[in-house]
TrEMBL record:
This is Succinate-semialdehyde dehydrogenase. It comes from the Bacteria. Residues 14-472 form the Aldehyde dehydrogenase domain. GO terms for biological process: gamma-aminobutyric acid catabolic process. It comes from Streptomyces resistomycificus. Belongs to the aldehyde dehydrogenase family. The keyword Nucleus does not apply. PANTHER family: SUCCINATE-SEMIALDEHYDE DEHYDROGENASE, MITOCHONDRIAL. Pfam families: Aldedh. PROSITE patterns: ALDEHYDE_DEHYDR_GLU. The active site is at E251. Keywords: Oxidoreductase. The keyword Oxidoreductase applies. GO terms for molecular function: succinate-semialdehyde dehydrogenase (NAD+) activity.
Amino acid sequence: MTDTPTQLFIGGAWADAADGATMPVDDPATGEIIAHVADAGAKDAQRAEEAAVQAQEEWARTAPRVRSEILRRAYEIVVERTDELAHLMTAEMGKPLAEARGEVAYAAEFFRWFSEEAVRVEGGHGVLPDGRNRMLLSRRPVGPCLLITPWNFPLAMGTRKIGPAIAAGCTMILKPAPQTPLSSLALAAILKEAGLPDGVLNVVTTSRAGEVCEPLLRGGRIRKLSFTGSTNVGRLLLAQSAEAVVRTSMELGGNAPFIVFEDADLDKAVDGAMVAKMRNMGEACTAANRFFVHSSVAEEFGRRLAERMGALVVGPGTRDGVDVGPLIDRVGRAKVEDLVADAVERGARVLVGGRTPEGPGCFYPPTVLTDVDPGSRLMDTEIFGPVAAILTFDDEDEVIRRANDTPWGLVGYVFTEGLDRALRVSERLEVGMVGLNTGLVSNPAAPFGGVKQSGLGREGGRVGLDEFLEYQYLAVPVR
């Protein structure tokens, strides 16, 4: 970790926190401290804000092709440093190296995608219906942005926000999660190397999120907030953003239903379940949370899933052959333990897993529960762990009602071989995304986001750039 920056990145320069504070970064596989990074306070946030505001006007005037080429160079550097970035991510977050390498590729693709979209920002022209004025429409950057990213995908969630902001011509303050600051600091160094001008991106690592973020949102100079995290924190940030009418994009929690109909191909369904449940050890907002399986195939599906889950190897992410790394910290593991205990107390049967291993680290085994009581707490809580809870159903209308019976609406998964049913059920699910006979929906070229309390706006795809742009309408008299 000796080559990874550990200071704040403000105005193109590395600096300690104004009060000299630092915070530790732990390896969740061992509990050992792997680094100390600068712990920013209010003064540091003010410096970052000033740098972003001062850089905004010139950056907005920068040619789209220039912004595009910076993103393209950053993409190439990220790809070249895949192993270095993967090891860094595994050290601070815990995911196995194979998954970490996959995230590096996913993260890099956001830079490539938005490098291509940067030169395609278009307006419009036309004569208004009364014939008196011509209408000229132009697109402009929304202005300085505050980007807040989570710990579960520390590199990809950064590039998913930074990419469109650069493409649109916005300056930024990035506040990464305190558990995983190193990936964001490494990303800042890469963007500086790629030619990003000073002040366009500022990275403020902190354990004092309220002290740093609230003044920025209430002050009026930050014009855009993009947040990925829990719904509870999202509500708080929305309230703070209201005072200065800050534009917001919120990618919040999920409670994804995974529906397996009686005509489903069970091989596909189990394969899809392994991806939808076990990607990132289940620590993903897109993770399948509630498995609704038709009663005629529930026993067989549960048996196959338990067999696959039980075969996974748990251990430190750097060890060869490991499939499942540790959870992020002991608080996260304790939450999973409590949810499983509650379900078992209510009558759930444990097909595999369910017991915390002894020893160091924050490990929890892949777990499959069946005969789960609908009143169990894990039915209305984002589990964020490797636990699959199976319930049965017999009727299509019934399962749709139960799938929609949640305040969240990020993603749903549907497994059926019938085209009519596939389209009908997908259209009735109250979610922003549907995986149809697949357990993976995320892609930089597709709009990512949910409905209800799963968020506002979309990230990725062409609409991901729109989130960082405003329209200006110019009326020109017809002569």
